[in-house]
Amino acid sequence: MGLTVTLETAATPTLLAIGNFDGVHRGHQQVFQPILQGTVGIKTVLTFDPHPRQVLGRQPYPLLTPLEEKVQILAELGIEQVVVLPFTPAFAQASAREFLQLLEHHLHPQGVSVGWDFCFGSQRSGNAQVLRLWGQKQGIPIHVVPEMTWHGQQLRSSRIRQALAEGNVEHAADLLGRPYTLIGTVVAGSRRGQQLGFPTANLQLPPEKLLPRDGVYAGWVRGLSQLPLAAVLNIGVRPTVEIQGSRTVEVHLLDWQGCLYGQVLRVGLVAFLRPEQRFPSLHALQRQIQQDCDQARQLLAHSMVTVVGPA
Questions:
Q1: 250 tagged catalytic
Q2: What percent of the chain shows pLDDT beyond 70?
Q3: Do the Cβ atoms of 262 and 186 come closer than 8 Å?
Q4: Is the N-terminal amide bond of 50 cis, ω within 30° of 0?
C-alpha cells in the first residue's frame, strides 16, 4: 500500500476528500472529482480504519473493500495519497472542533470535498454545514456533493450489500461502476475438485471481506496472464462432499492449467448461476459442475471483460 500515509507523514498542502468510502462506488467517485480537478495540493483521501461501525457497534462489520483493496482502487482513480486515520474509541469521543484542528495542523487543506451526509466528531456533532462555516473562516473551499441517484434509486453502500446478499452481482456492479471483486491468495485445499475432474484454487480472502450469497458464479480472473481468464466460482460449505464444512471460496479456471499455490488472484463476479445445493451422489455433482462450466462459458463469451486493477 505505497499510497498509504499517516497524519505525520502526509505530504502537504492537500486537496482533501474525507469519508469511509467503503465500496468506492459511483457516488464516492463524485466526491473525488473536485479534488482530482484541483491544482493547488496533493490529491488526498482521508479515511478511517477500522470502519467506525465496527468500533461503535462493537461487532464485526464486513467490508465491500478492505483497506488494501480500497487503496488500490483509489490509486487507479488518480488519488496521490491516502491518509489512514485509526478509528479508536478515544478518537470517537473527540469533538468536531478537535477534528477540524487536526485537519488544519497536519494536512493544510486547500480544498475539502465530502458527501452530503458526512458527519464528524463525538455524537456526530459536526456536519456539512459546520464544515462549510469552518471553511469560510479559514478561507478553504468546501465542496459538499449532493446525494447521487442511479437509475432512479439512491446510491448507497447498503444497496450494494443487499444486491450481494441476493446474489445479484450484476446490480452490484452497476452501482459500483465495476464488477464486485474478490482478491485472495491461493492456499492448499482438500483437493476435492481435482478428484472430481474440476481442479479448483482455494482463495484465502481478507477476513473482513464481505462475501455475496452462497452459490456458483461465473467470473473473470486476473493475476495469471495479461488477459483475464474465464472461471466458475463456488462460495459456500460444499454440502455434498463435506459433513460440516467451513465456508470457502473456490475458483475453477475454464481454460488454464498449472500450479496456483501462492498466486494472488482477482476474481470479478459477472453472473450468479445457481444456489449451492446438496446432490445425491458425486456423479450427480460432476454432471452439475459440467453444466455450470458450460453455462459460464456461454455467459462470459457475451460479457464485457471489465475487471478493475492491474493484471
A1: yes
A2: 92
A3: yes
A4: yes
* Cα gap 79→1, rounded to integer Å: 13
Enclosing H/E stretch for 149: strand 149-150
Pairing state of beta strands 215-222 and 229-236? antiparallel
Report long-range pairs for 50-53 (Cβ below 8 Å, ≥24 apart).
50/87, 50/208, 51/20, 51/22, 51/87, 52/20, 52/87, 52/92
CA-based angle 8:9:13, to the nearest 5?
90
Q: What is the total residue count of the chain?
A: 311
User: Which residues are CB-neighbours of 281 under 8 A, at least 6 positions away?
Assistant: none
The residue behind cell 446438496 is 278
Mean pLDDT on 189-203? 70
Q: Which residues contact 176 (CB under 8 A, 6 or more apart)?
A: 23, 24, 25, 26, 64, 160
Q: CA-based diameter of the chain, in Å?
A: 73
Catalytic annotation, pick one of 147, 242, 250, 276 = 250
In the block, cell 455524537 appears at: 123
pLDDT of amino acid 310: 38
CA-CA distance, 44 to 6, in Å (whole number)?
A: 12
**Reported confidence tier of residue 132, pLDDT bands at 50, 70, 90:** very high
Q: Is the dihedral of CA 58, 62, 65, 67 positive or negative?
A: positive
- How far lies 223's CA from each of 181, 197, 233, 260, in Å? 12, 23, 16, 10
Q: Which one, of 163, 156, 42, lies nearest residue 110 by Cα?
A: 42
H/E element, 143: strand 142-145
- How far is residue 216's CA from residue 276's CA, in Å, rounded to a whole number? 7
Nearest to 272 by CA among 231, 217, 232, 235: 217
Mean pLDDT across 284-303: 90
31 and 115 Cβ atoms separated by less than 8 Å: yes
pTM: 0.90
